[in-house]
Amino acid sequence: MGDSGMKEYTKWVATWGTATSITDRKECVYAKDITLRYPIHCCFDGCKIRLHFSNLTGTEPVVISKVYADVTPVTMNGNTELVIPPGCEIVSDEIPFSAAAGATIVISMYLADCTQMNAGTLVTGPLSGGQYAYGDFALSEAFPAEVCRNTNWYYFLNTVDILTSEENRAICCYGDSITAQDWPDYLQQELETAGCRNTAIIRRAVCGTRILRQYDCITYQAYGLKGETRFPIEINVAGCDTVIIQHGINDIIHPVGVEVNRFRPMSDLPTVDDMIAGYRKFYLPYARERNLMVLSGSLLPIYGWRTYAPFREELRGQFNHWLRTADDFDGCIDFDAAVRDAAHPEQFASGFDSGDHLHPSGTAYKAMAQAAAKQLLITG
Fold first, then answer.
1. Fewest CB within 10 angstroms: 72, 195, 292, 364, which?
2. How distant, in Å, are the alpha carbons of 130, 188, 189, 193, 201 from that of 150?
3. CB of 349 closer than 8 Å to CB of 360
4. Is the backbone of residue 257 left (phi > 0), alpha (psi -120 to 50) or beta?
5. Is there a contact between 299 and 339 (Cβ–Cβ < 8 Å)?
6. How distant, in Å, are the alpha carbons of 51, 299, 330, 370 from that of 335?
7. C-alpha–C-alpha distance, residues 159 and 236, integer Å
8. Which residues of the chain have pLDDT under 50?
9. Per-residue confidence (pLDDT) for residue 107, from 0 to 100
10. What local confidence, expressed as pLDDT, does residue 2 receive?
């Protein structure tokens, strides 16, 4: 239980968050009579909770029949049924809730009627993952094993805020699949181990996303919205004072030519100036308007990836040089240096490649988190 009698709680701060994107376009895109359950790592003590829900990429209203934080009902305008219009995000009522730093808040959502499952994102890491079960088990302590499975898809639930004390804050990690995977969770653990217990790491990442482009075909819709659309929405995080931007590798590796893939023309390949202009137009002004400290994150090695070519490596190197040296940022987290082979910097160090030559291994994600924690502890 949080020490609500000893502290003054006056500030809303996000304790957990993910992005919202278009879910993978499979044969079945609707669900009915299903319970979703997500354990949420609580970073702070507090006295109230509020939940953000997103149907940003949906084309039909979503009706969530009931929502619980542990066993506490979550309401919207006093109603236990929450309706999210298509293309919209909503925030629940402020719910009295005794939050405790280090505890797990279990969010359970029951969808009674046929529901379009268009809005969600895939996330992994030691603090990530949930379950779903067929039937209404929103208040059950555990799901029956026969009707449940684990999932790393987060549907509709977007952010969890805590009313907490003034010293607490959030950091937003913005990026693509590399940030949708493990390093932000490891960063949360690194900071807490180092004694930094006033900070929540909020992940805003979607697999496949690019700065400058998006796909409007169902084959690649799950790659999400382009940076111009995503960033202003996703950095709107309660209590956030810093954003880490590690984004751009997909702009480099996706274009292959229409003779190879009709949806991925070489005309989509940016120059380094295009990528810099994207950051300066779509990211930096919005961050500065919100008085956020902005840290760049260098792009990781791609040698051996299926679209690798020397011209892509050259573009990555040019962009990384700008990310490391530009006055546009308050600092750089050199993720590339943390995971690359010293003798062959175009590739991952031994043991740091997941096997696809693009995504890091679990060990490499820990190294990335350590590099980020070191920079954050220096900059405060």
1. 195
2. 6, 22, 22, 28, 23
3. no
4. left
5. no
6. 32, 7, 16, 10
7. 10
8. 1-4
9. 98
10. 45
Residues contacting 178, CB < 8 A, separation 6+: 205, 246, 249, 300, 359, 360
Which residues, 6+ apart, have CB-to-CB distance to 311 below 8 Å? Answer: none
Instruction: Tell me what pLDDT residue 26 has.
Output: 81
At 370 the three-state DSSP class reads: helix
Pairwise CA distance, residues 260 & 278, whole Å:
26
pLDDT at 380: 65
HSE-CB of 180 using CA atoms within 13 angstroms: 22
Full-prediction pTM beyond 0.85? yes
What's the pLDDT tens digit per position in 231-259?
999 999 999 999 999 999 999 999 999 99
For residues 245 and 175, the answer to whether their CB atoms sit within 8 Å is yes
| Torsion angle in degrees (nearest 10) through CA of 213, 218, 222, 226 | 20
The Cα–Cα gap between 95 and 352 comes to: 43
In order, the DSSP letters of 231-297 are HHHHT--TTEEEEEEE--HHHHHS---TTT-TT--GGGPPPHHHHHHHIIIIIHHHHHHTT-EEEEE
- Residue 268 burial class via C-beta count within 10 angstroms: exposed 0-12, middle 13-18, buried 19 and up: middle
On whether the CB atoms of residues 213 and 263 are closer than 8 A, the answer is: no
Q: What is the pLDDT of residue 349?
A: 98
Question: What does DSSP say about strands 240-246 and 293-297: parallel, antiparallel, or unpaired?
Answer: parallel
Q: What number of CA atoms fall less than 13 Å from residue 135's CA on the CB side?
A: 11
Instruction: Specify the 3-state DSSP secondary structure of 221.
Output: helix
The phi and psi torsions of 101 (rounded to 5 degrees) equal -60, 130
The CA-based angle 73-76-82, given to 5 degrees, is 85
Please tell me whether residue 22 adopts helix, strand or coil conformation: strand
